[in-house]
Fold this protein.
Amino acid sequence: MIHRLAALIAAGAAALGGAAITASGPALAEGAAVATLIGANGQELGRAQLVEGPAGVVIRIELAGLEPGFKGMHLHAVGSCDDHDGGFKHSGSHVNPDQKEHGFLNPKGPDDGDLPNLGVAPDGTAEAEVFTTLVSLTGAGGRPALLDADGSALVIHANTDDHMSQPIGGAGPRVACGVIQKQ
Ligand SMILES: [Cu+2]
């Protein structure tokens, strides 16, 4: 697990020059996945691309219409975002088959759904690329598969994840959700 943690990197905001939501992203290898994120009113906020690499998954995120600040972001265990008016509870809890504790800063963590916070600019946009070695798209390396029978979702919370508190780092309500689907 230690080596996985060491490789988990938040690459920060992508230098896209303030471009609007675009279709650009990592080269889409066979088996890449996408997620269209929606907000609490069901409105589309943007998208994420997920590409499987040999050691983990690269996730590129391009969103607009969020509240500024660092927002908790996780991979949730069920591919359902149809209850936008009910707080996206249908997306379940974190991808966490081994029932580990939450948090990159937790000696007993992290769980496999943990991701770095997403930094949202004052204008409500967010462009970021993150890499997680804790999951896979289809089971590579024996890591939990996002594209499993009940799918998975990328979920953004209202508040900052402190990477320590249980069960979700104090990240609060779920404000955006996207079902991860095979491209
Ligand atoms: Cu979450």
The two ends are 29 Å apart (CA to CA).
